[in-house]
Structure prediction request, 617 residues.
Amino acid sequence: MPRLSRLALVSAALAAAAVPALAQEDEVTNLDAISVAASAEPVKLSRTGATVTVVTAEEIEKAPLGFGQYLSTLPGITLSANGGLGTQTSLRVRGLPAYYLGTRIDGINVTDAANPQVSYSFGGLTTAGLSRIEVLRGAQSALYGSEAVAGVIDITSWRPETEGASGQVALEAGTRDTHSGSASVGLKTERTELALTASRTVTDGISAYAQGTEKDGFNGTQINANARHALTENLTIGAAALVQDTSVAFDNTGADADNRADSRLRGGRVFAQFDTGAVWHELSLARARTERDVREYGSDTHFLSDRDTLAYAGRWAARDTLSLNWGLEHGQDDFSVASSWSTTANGIRTTAAFAEALWAPRADLDLSFALRHDDHTLFGGHDSGRLALAWRPEADWVLRAVAATGFRAPSPYELWSSYGKPTFQPETSRSYEIGAERLLAGGSISATLFETRVEDQITFDSNTFTYVQQAGTTKSQGIELAGKAAIGANWSLFGAYAYTDVTVRQGTAERRGARAPRHNLTLGVDGRIGARLDARFSVTHVAGLWDEYVDYSSFPYATMQQKMSDYTVATLSMSYALTETAAATLRVENLFDESYQTARNFGQPGRTLYVGVRTKF
Prediction:
């Protein structure tokens, strides 16, 4: 039977299961979820102009094991992976490369300053032990500085939800000798919150090279520890710690290879929050060290990144309709790259000041104004701004608009490696978006038009084997659609679609953006069958994907583009309640065993079956 026919049958069967409950309720969902990333203070989603997706712990429990694989089902996010779990994996937001995306875990900036461009590889991160994910789309340099031109991903590990001691354990085993487990314990009282989570994943994996025969295995361990304690009514102290160790085998673009990458991330953050009358303050110190040992083409390279940030933030509620936020940051980024033929090491210091005003001139209108100044040791100061509004003309409508500027500072590697140049200047960007959201029974439906222009990009010249900065514009524009609605008492329908048109202009030449698919669609249903069985089925279709490579057959070398095959991937997850606190789980990823690539010459796992158990206490 053709795959599309099988897909239609499964979709029809799940839809039929939901039919008995199609009597839709008239009540409208109240959009009162809180975003902690969209502004310098927590805001309700209905009162922010920013485009935010909040993923809850309940949704994460049903998600695929790979973090990047799951996020690629959300609006405007696509995945590029050089193989299976653990390999180099990038997330693109609205078609822009991963080095325009800020990433934080428990408040710690985990982007790697020793990468060619400062970014975080999502390949070794799983969804195990996580309780919340926020995806903030659009230029956010006014709040977060460099590396936030496309947006910010904010990740929170498990936290206790009820008073007293609590915890959870999840274990599962799957195809290709895959084993994954996580355990969390915590304590919550009126004044104290403690949480500790440990997770580990081991798999034989697949061949990263699409035509390869040897397996490229992966193993990874992550530990998150968090604590906060209210010493008095006006003073709270806290800390977070992160340990992430991964080891993965990987291939070259054209053949099986005996390559390996071992990575170690150590992060920590301490903070103190205190009130002085009407003003709230926070002092924090964060540090993240990433070490990577990479063996490729028979040679070993050691990468080291240290990122230290000392920050102060203040908040004042001037009145019910006006609040002011402000802050100062001082950062030190050091990196070194050592190989058998060269060693490069250097550092960057940045100092930044920001301010934000949240103003509600009317009960149905919220405005936010943010401005940030970053001062860099090499190229001086840079200003970024963001203006956003959220207007609620009716109780079940939210209209949004954002205009923002952003920048990306050259990475240490681009400045000081043998391929770089210390005279590079920051890339700059402008971003605009306008959207509307309609609240429905059990959910909402939204549409967002967006455009981002990035100027003076730093790119790699394959003929001179150096980075160059030249006049040119990368433009990303399109539309995002997202929705969720109740289709009965126990079932809901959800979906996301993004049309993204990315063009890169350098001089007079123009080409399509690589690894930025034109179409990305996810549709699914989520609900309960009987009293104990929960089910979730989703289908993701990606089309209009191009990748590029360098043709070294003749000089001068040419950058070539290749059309990639469209693909459709389905995921089915089920959970059967054994008791009130324990459940047996079944999940099938790539249900129809689709053969596909998200990056040229690198394969993705075929059908993968997981069975497991989880319990809460």
About this structure: Residues 273 and 282 are 4 Å apart (CA to CA). Residues 3-18 form the longest helix (16 residues). The first strand starts at residue 34 and ends at 35. The radius of gyration is 24 Å.
